[in-house]
Amino acid sequence: MTPADVGDALVAAVRDAVAGGVVPPDGVDVVGRGPGVYASPVALRLGLDPEDLARRVARWPGVLRAEVARGMVVVFVEPGSLAAEVIAAGDSYGVARVPGGGWDEWPRTWENPGFAVRYAYARAAAVRRWADGLGIGPGEPVGLVRDEELALLGALGELPGRARQAERERDPGALVKCLERLAGAYHDVHERCPALPRGDEKPGAVHGARVTLAEAARIALANGMNMIGETPRERI
């Protein structure tokens, strides 16, 4: 489930809880809190019983469970499925109307967070090219259990909420920082959980899953960069 799907589940729970329940015109805020974990202040905002909403949303297809923490409804879903759903959403994933912003072009070193974001996009794009050349297609995103992979899934889930925050606050800062975290998480995956076989290693299901994860990261980074006025480049 994407954050938008979790939002839909919460909207349905609100309408189920209150006949003709009114949902805010700007929708339900959903913020990623980790791999497969999303939190929403919808109960607090609407003055509803969060325990009741959690029970109702837990019945939604794709939701593993839901609970309440400090009045927030916290929804748990299968984390790996997000990667495939980001790809399915494509250039619409997480998109909001965010003011322009970003980083300096120079220096092209790790001290410049903009370089890290641009390089993460270029690396993810290269995985797609190399995988195509090796005949390794995107696979089912299952078995993504390494800490680095889960951290990247968590960062992917965070992006839509931060984009909406940036739109609401008319300040790109929240999205810019999210992109920096997303880029850092992708670099960790790229270096420690390779999507392509090394040496005499045979391609397996894990490689297909990681190709899917890399493509999801590429799409999310591209969408985020486009929102703040950056042009994603496959080579820098």
Can you summarize this structure?
It is an enzyme of class 6 (ligase). This protein is of the alpha+beta class and 236 residues long. The chain has eight helices and four strands; from the N terminus they run αββααββααααα.
Overall geometry comes to globular
Q: What percent of residues are in strands?
A: 5-15%
Order of helices and strands: HEEHHEEHHHHH
Q: In whole angstroms, how far apart are the ends?
A: 33 Å
* Radius of gyration (Å): 18 Å
Stretches where pLDDT falls below 50 for ≥5 residues?
A: none
GO molecular function, one term: arginine-tRNA ligase activity
Keywords: Aminoacyl-tRNA synthetase, ATP-binding, Ligase, Nucleotide-binding
EC number: 6.1.1.19
InterPro entries: DALR_anticod-bd, tRNAsynth_Ia_anticodon-bd
